[in-house]
Amino acid sequence: MATVWVLFIFLNFDLLLKTGQCAETSGQVLSITPNSQEQVEILKNVSIHYQTVLWQPVSSDYIKEQTQVHLYVPANSSQTVNDLLHRHSITYEVMLSNADEIIEMQMRNDSTDPRSGATFYQRYHTLEDIYDWINRTAKDYPNTVKVILVGSSHEKRPLYALKLSLNNRPNKKAMWIDCGIHAREWISPAFCLFFVHYSLLFYNQNQAMTQILDNMDVYVLPVMNPDGYKYTWTNDRMWRKNRFPKKGTPCIGVDLNRNFDANWCTRGASDYPCSEIYCGAFPESEPESQAVANFLRSHKDSIQIYLSIHSYSQMLLMPYSCTMDEAENHSELYEMVKQAAENIRRYYRNIYTYGPGAKTIYLAPGGSDDWAHMLGIKYSFTFELQDRGRYGFLLPPSHIQGACNEALTAVKTIALKVMEKSQASTSSRQTV
Ligand code: ARG
Ligand code: ZN
Asked: GO CC: one term (predicted)?
């Protein structure tokens, strides 16, 4: 009997050693640069047929030679994927070896970590917390903040925008900012919350902010894709699309930033429902994109600036993303993003690339920024915020403040520039 026990322990010890040696206990993020067409094909295959999530590029169709691929590999498939890469002599760098730990860190909040010195705006928040915050903010600032219900999501969650109106000047222009189109880009809703807070706190304190808010109202939609955002907290941190269930396929979700009516579903989007860049059944097929489009249509005479906040890759993008053609006001938009990037570099020593989306990243039709521009909102932009190269979508809470400050600098630069232009044009009209 004793020998049986010894044998049993021995065998299991051996097993323990084996798993301890090779298997990862945490999800990882790999940075892989394929250097042959064969390696490209293997990577496409891995990202499609193995349990992994492609972070960059957004779809396996865009994997190409000599271009970095960022791949999230969960713990349970890391052994298989690592073996496969080794077998084909594909070299890679580990961007993040402890993804699970960072995900856990991102989800930590007051109740789980009361000693953390971080303020509300230096943490990520659940959808429920964000809804509470919206109500609280409106209650705390009854004269300046209004909650507007612009629509509801597929799963019937409300889409609330806050209207900040800090003085009562007649015929004010407005700026629209939306966050959280893509569920996993958590820094985006965090920016919207921070921006509202900053505006309310620094009106009459910070000169640029005061000037901006004296001249325009600001609409802020903190979470455009609440179903997806909720899902990233409860089921899958890497979820991107909304949660539209497509009958007849096992695949869920439409990419809301491919669902607008701007060269809809041409090259750069997919009509395959399982794709991360699925464009939906028709333009504005999704309640979330339709709600935003309806609101912008009915306010297009006052809204001068459209801003959509995404992550990651540190870019300030302007139209167009849906065509290689130049926007009719290309040079003034280019001047604005250039100046915004220069200010970020000067104040925060961080480099943002800038330019029209199609030429700066990739063709991406059906985007909200292009659609808003075509509607007549001439100053239309998409910002891609931090990280600075290691964390991707898993930007630790300690980096929220820095990322938001950079984006705020860009918003201020652009808004001031737009105001300067419209003031110049009204005064010239007056003098004529
Ligand atoms: N990363 C964003 C996306 O893939 C880029 C958006 C650029 N603008 C656009 N209209 N596609 O959706
Ligand atoms: Zn995005």
From this structure: extracellular space
- 101 and 126 assigned to the same domain: no
**Ligand 1 mutation target, pool 257, 337, 369, most atoms within 8 A of CB:** 257
- Which residue among the candidates 276, 284, 288, 384 is catalytic per the annotation? 384
Q: Is residue 323 within 8 Å of 359, Cβ to Cβ?
A: no
Q: Is residue 16 part of a domain?
A: no
Q: Hey, what are 274's tokens?
A: 């399982």
Whether 155 contacts 227, CB under 8 Å: yes
> Would residue 332 count as lying in a domain?
yes
Strand, helix or coil for residue 390: coil
CATH number of the CATH domain containing 164: 3.40.630.10
Residue 390 is encoded by which pair of tokens?
């290691």
Name the β-bridge partners of 149.
160
* pLDDT beyond 70 at 18: no
What is the model's pTM? 0.93
Name which residue sits closest to atom 2 of ligand 1, judged by CA: 310
Residue 326 is given by DSSP the state: P
How many angstroms does the Cα of residue 412 sit away from the middle of ligand 1?
A: 22
Q: Are 151 and 287 in contact (CB under 8 A)?
A: yes
- The mean per-residue pLDDT over the stretch 286-292 comes to 98
- Determine the structural domain holding residue 355 and report its residue range: 117-429
Structure tokens at 270: 């997919």
Specify the amino acid at residue 424: A
Looking at 106, 127, 156, the residue that finishes a domain is 106
Q: Which two tokens stand for residue 271?
A: 């009509």
Instruction: Report pLDDT digits (tens) over 400-417.
Output: 999 999 999 999 999 999
Domain limit, last residue, from 50, 79, 106? 106
The dihedral through the CA atoms of 371, 382, 295, 273 has a sign that is: positive
